[in-house]
Design goal:
The chain has 99 residues and is α+β, with helices and mostly antiparallel strands. Helices cover 15% and strands 15% of the residues. The longest helix has 6 residues.
């Protein structure tokens, strides 16, 4: 139930008296709305760990690492050469991992 915190407070003596039976009776116009959700649509959006994805197709094109890019050996992300912080023993590290 929504509460108006800006409204003046009412002491128990000032509250209107409402019969308990009147509160217990359900009024037909005051039903709570329930969202119409199809459970099968929700289930399709979840991916379970260990699920068999052998029938799935990739919808993106995978491009190999370009000549001006490198793979950071700390975060394993592909970065542009301008993000190279250091190279040690053939292993390259980005500025984010070194900073």
């Amino acid at each position: 139930m929504a509460v108006d915190y800006d409204a003046p407070r009412v002491t128990p003596e000032e509250e209107p008296n409402v019969a308990l039976e009147e509160l217990k009776t359900e009024k037909p116009g005051r039903r709570e709305a329930t969202p119409d959700v199809d459970e099968t649509d929700l289930a399709d959006s979840f991916e379970l760990p260990g699920a068999d994805l052998s029938n799935e197709e990739l919808l993106i094109q995978v491009v190999p690492v370009q000549q001006d890019e490198f793979t950071c050996m700390s975060c394993f992300l592909v970065h542009h050469r301008s993000q190279l912080a250091r190279e040690k023993d053939g292993k390259k590290y980005c500025k984010e991992c070194e900073g």
